[in-house]
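Batch job 17 of 40 flagged for manual review because the log was empty.
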Amino acid sequence: MMNSSRFISGPLPPITLSNVELRDLMVSLFAAHPGNYSFINFVRLISSKIIEAKVGFNAEPHTTYSGELCQGDQTKVREILWDMIIDRHLTVGCNGHHEWPNFAVTDRGKAHFKAKQNN
């Protein structure tokens, strides 16, 4: 019997990561890539990491996924980002755009994310 493969483009299935696991993944991304982001570009980055690592969602066998987190999971990411903004690890605005959805890793955040990554 031949295995056929499928390609799915569009929102990923809901992720199975807890909020703590999702935050840890976000911390690892910020530790590796401190800098400036727009929300949608960060969603794309975290989505690609989840797809690449094949963790965080129940992938169907013989299926290749392309796309971004579903809206519910994007809400979880946004809530975690706002917690990081409140903790002053991130700041709203970057590159001359002083409002959300743009944000940047602060110097305090760079030190925090690096320390968390080394633990």
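Reviewer: the log was empty due to a logging misconfiguration, but the result itself is present. The longest strand covers residues 6-9. Unflagging and moving on to job 18.
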